[in-house]
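re: that complex we talked abt at group meeting.

here r the seqs, copy pasted straight from the sheet so there may be weird spacing, ignore it
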Amino acid sequence: MHIPDGFLDLWICAVMYLISAMVIGYSAKKLKDKLDAPQVSLIGIVGAGIFAAQMLNWPIPGGTSAHFVGGAIAGILLGPYAGCLSMVSVLTIQCLVFGDGGITALGANIFNMAIVDVFVGYGIFKALRRYNQDVSLFLAGWIGIWLGALAAGVEIGVSSIFAYGLMTTVLVMGIWHGALGFIEGIITMLAVRYVLIKQPDFVPLPKEVRG
Amino acid sequence: MVELAGTIKVISKLLRDFLVAEEYAYREGFLQGVDQKVKLMAILLLIVLAVSTQNIFFLLLLFLFSLTMVLLSKVSLRMYLPRFGFIPIFALIIVLPWIFLMPGQPALTFIGLNVTKPGIMYVITFTLRVTACVSCVSLLLFTTRVSDLLHTLKSLKIPSPLVDMFGLVYRYLFTFLSELERMLLGRECRVVSDQGLLKNWRDGGNVVGNFLSRTFYRSENVYKAMRARGYDGSFKTYPRNDKIGKKSIVFMALVGIMVGIWLVTRL
Amino acid sequence: MARDKVIEAKNLKYRYPDGTVGIEKVDFELWSGEKVAIIGPNGSGKSTLLEILGGLIEPTEGYVKFFGKESIDKYELRRRVGIMLQNPDDVLFNPTVREDLEFGPAQLQMEKEEFNKILEGISQLLDLKLYLNKPPFRLSKGEKQKAALGSVLALKPEVLLLDEPFSAVDIGAKQSMIKYLNRLNEDGVTIVVTAHDLTTVPLLADRVYLLNKRLIAEGSTRDTLTNAELLKNNGLEVPPLVELGLRLGINLVPLTVDEAVRRLRERFCL
Ligand SMILES: Nc1ncnc2c1ncn2[C@@H]1O[C@H](COP(=O)(O)OP(=O)(O)O)[C@@H](O)[C@H]1O
Ligand SMILES: [Mg+2]
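got the structure back, here u go
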């Protein structure tokens, strides 16, 4: 889901950079009194963990395999603001050190995977948790990544540099990642459930999540 | 139900790619000697130019420019090209239908469909643009040490705590990758029978959950280590004397020429 | 020479957030210029105690006093007390070894010239020259341990707290590290090390605290390490030389090879 350089019009890149920078600034401000000390190490190191976990191969029917993104997990375990910064760190290192995703597209990639995925995932979990925790976690992972993919579809679709129209890109991204997102949902559910049940004290979860 | 062999392949490819690139970043080549700030900004500028042009000639020139830089920086093309080669191929496959879809003068007919001239031009331009861009970014990967890169981001006024987080992601990624590999191998040794799909999935989820909670635990210890050395919210460093040397000036001149050519193609 | 009390701790207890008791009922005293070892089997609370003594975690019960002061400014504490955590991967959190060495001094605003001098000395001594620009994850465990020690030494602390500093370094590095630490001690640095492998203890400590969740014993290195009963009861291996000495019935049981050689020579007229 990392958009490379050359797929997005320059103005889209600029707009996405701007939006992402604003959300990052807002998140940092929200954490302000906490962003001094333990937060930095927590966000960076859990980010490294999510990056590493993204390397896991989940086989899907048809012989290929899927990787999960982990935005919703980050949002739920760290809280949305810290989760967002954590994913921002992951995506920036992937772009500048590993060549995953373009430099001009970094703003857009951050928006899709560090903002939409994280905040939507967290929001769904928070809203639906009281009905059924497992379902809320599954939907957080699934819909978070699905909306992130749709956002990517829109960004690519409105770019004139990429000849396919908006309908096509949104449809393709929506169907493909709607299916793949299923895996994201299941992993989000299983992994977060494990953490909440097995090690609730181990993890300095945000107040809201600890419940 | 993590697929072990596949995962290990992915991890070792990531490691290998990184180590190869890093190896070159330590050599004494042209771009390695260019001031990091200049290099980062110039590469960003070149990509911006590429994204905002339709001119095949410029895109081709930019690609050749990046390859020249590769050679001047003592990087082997045999290592360089395969690193990102799949991205242009992927791009080509995606836009290939446009040789038929693009309206315009037919160039030839192929199984009853018209391949149009504008279609061919579009596909070539698009693929070439993606190629040139990814090649330019790779210049950065192959000639810059991560620690210098992070330092540059700070000097470009990216807030320090954010860059510190980037640094931690980079630092602990490799530690965690080997930890993850060990966890998977350990599990593989213990699981003897096929346990059925449901159990398998739950097992996979547990691995992720367990692994992530270890990272939380890790962060507590690292935080202790930071405090032990006087940390109170931002990584302070000594100023570095990054002077803009001869290589930087030559590089800026070369990039200036590319900008000039870009301007001319716009006329 | 009247010595100052560097650290005084009474009735320490530490409970981890998950309820595990790390240590309880531990008293600890450290005098300026001392060399002390904290020994105990795995999980006996050595690291927990050391982290409390380094001011990194607050005891759940009891108190710690540094330099005889009721309360201490945290920067002063960090400047004067250096602590090296057990896992070098936690200690080395920077992108390169050089930045890790630089971290403490830069945080505490040491002059750059002074730091450069220290850096030169440390990398010489610990053989770090080749690794300075390498990322820590590319070092072996022993190299990491040396780099971690270097990053703590870079602050020039008066008190050094080292958590199992030799557990992975090779024999040569271990010997040179021990020699260096002893020299630092002669220059006035107070040293505390933890160990579960007792072979290095006599080379580096005059006094020993034996820990097993609670404080089991405190005394001179000689008294403690020659008490085979005590060591065995608390899950520690009796050092082979001590075992040999005890079985041979040598009246002053040797602790180090040098000592053993001397004793045996005397006894058997070799
Ligand atoms: N972060 C932690 N959370 C919970 N329990 C812990 C933690 N760290 C250590 N412990 C427990 O505290 C006890 C003492 O541990 P530690 O001080 O690390 O011992 P040692 O260093 O002697 O091996 C052990 O029982 C250990 O399991
Ligand atoms: Mg320990």
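couple things i noticed - Chain C has twelve helices and nine strands. The pocket of adenosine-5'-diphosphate (ligand 1) is lined by residues C 16, 18, 20, 22, 40, 42-48 (CB under 6 Å).
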